[in-house]
Amino acid sequence: MTRGSTPPHAAVIYNPTRIQLERVTRLVDAAAAEAGWGPTSWIPTRERSTAVDQVAEALGGGASLVIAAGGDGTVREVAGAMRHTRTPFAVVPVGTANLFARNAGIPIDTATAVRAAFTGEERSVDVGVIDYRNPDGLQRSTPFLVMSGFGVDADMVAYADPVLKRRFGWIAYVVPIIRGLFRRDRPRVSWKEDGGPIRSGRTHTMFVGNCGTVSAGLDVLPDALLDDGVLDVLMVRSLEGWDGVRVTRWLHRANNPVARFSKGGRTRGGRVQPSAVETAGSAGGALRYLRIRRIDVTVSPPAEFQADGDGIGPVSAARLTVDPGALIVRLPATAARSGRLRP
Fold first, then answer.
1. Which GO terms describe its molecular function (predicted)?
2. Mind listing the pLDDT tens digit for each residue in 251-301?
């Protein structure tokens, strides 16, 4: 910064029901001052305005950095509005699951996350988009940073008790997860990968993700990277009988640090490890693992979908695509250890 020039400043878009505003303000002011930045702009989320409006207010005020302070819903909406702006985006995670922060290696500790927002490294990451139609024919679109889909994850979101969620955090998801695991109904899904032929089959659960670690640290998309330009897809046929055994065995391997998958062709002991696509193919048809840029699906009967932990209602048809490198994220130098970024 040259003498007489105006110092840069950040804008914080925050969920007023989530953050301890006085404490976060104190931490942000201290970090901004230490970095030589000017006074921060504070923009609360509001029911009658959208993230697009809030980001426009931040950028219109000349912000050189936009920070989302809230849960995964706030982060998802602000990030979606920040696509292709080329202005850095940072996260102060104060939600229940904080899935994007955990996948991206962003500290959950508020003070550490604030420091990383001002001092971290900038990385371009992908953003997923789901364009969907509900049973009434209404067309909608929403971004996601972590994953979208139906089945166990959407059941978890749809049936979690909001009071328990506020009081006990992710523990509120335990009963809905169990309910989803033992659900017997399986809609018929037809899908088309990157414009290829149409395939179909009964499907219990479908994850489509930009990264793959969900609540309680379970890794369901072991090859997914935030910056590889593709989406990873896991389709589970059933969790009953031998299918349940095969899926459990596959997930155990995905979450076993000794026998992990390759995450993009990495090696162990000089040998290339098999990818999740390859190992899923040996699971007796119990699951499919795809890596795609676009997938078109129809679901009959319609199923409840979610995007980054927010329910989006029943969906009868959807197109899920990746927007490669659409978002510049400020991450701590240690973020590469998360395993969700290319070296």
1. kinase activity; methylglyoxal synthase activity
2. 888 777 655 555 544 443 444 456 788 778 767 788 999 999 999 999 999
